[in-house]
Amino acid sequence: MKIQVNAVHFNADSSLITFIQKKLNKLETFYDRIVSSEVFLKLDKGEKSKVQKKLIEVKVNVPGSTLFVKETGDSFEEATDIALETLTKKIKRYKEKVNIVSHKKPEVELVAEEADEF
Q1: Is the separation of the CB atoms in 51 and 61 below 8 Å?
Q2: Nearest Cα to 20, choosing from 64, 94, 63, 73?
Q3: How much of the chain, in percent, has pLDDT values that exceed 70?
Q4: What is the CATH class of 2-117?
Q5: Which residue, among 71, 90, 74, has the nearest Cα to 82 in the 3D structure?
Q6: pLDDT in tens, 6-57
Q7: Where are the domains of the chain?
Q8: Residue 39 near residue 24 (C-beta atoms within 8 A)
Q9: Who contacts 45 (Cβ-Cβ below 8 Å, separation ≥6)?
Q10: What is the mean pLDDT of the chain?
Q11: How far is residue 76's CA from residue 6's CA, in Å, rounded to a whole number?
Q12: What are the residues whose beta carbons fall under 8 Å from the beta carbon of 22, sequence distance 6 or more?
């Protein structure tokens, strides 16, 4: 899976980028057809506090759809862990949906074949 990490208005540390890539690679254990993912790291200004919340947005591209998660935390590592949990649930749900649709056989083809015989 190709992972692109973008830090908005700041420079991300290489250890943070490595941490995020390592965590997102674990998603392939749940669904192996993930094409790519994009991660956006942002600093969210607090209303009255001087401490900035960390915001992570993850967009995962799978065949036929895009899964998106937006989470905040006190650190990027915490926000990544929360986003990973949410993405895991979404990927499992997407995989079940795809499997249900693919197991249904269209009956229209059978009707067309019977019409050709007459």
Answers
A1: no
A2: 73
A3: 83
A4: alpha beta
A5: 71
A6: 999 899 999 999 999 999 999 999 999 999 999 999 998 766 667 789 999 9
A7: 2-117
A8: yes
A9: 52
A10: 87
A11: 13
A12: none
Q: How many Cα neighbours within 13 Å face the side chain of 82? A: 15
Q: First and final CA of the chain: distance in angstroms? A: 50
Q: How does strand 53-62 pair with strand 36-44?
A: antiparallel
Spatial contact of 21 and 2, defined as CB atoms under 8 Å apart:
no
Amino acid identity of residue 82, one-letter, is I
* Amino acid at the residue 94: Y
Write the DSSP assignment of the chain as a string of letters.
Answer: -EEEEEESSSPPPHHHHHHHHHHHHGGGGT-TT--EEEEEEEEEPPSS-SSPEEEEEEEEEETTEEEEEEEEESSHHHHHHHHHHHHHHHHHHHHHHHHHHHHSPPSHHHHHHHHHH-
Per-residue confidence band for 118, with pLDDT thresholds at 50, 70 and 90: low
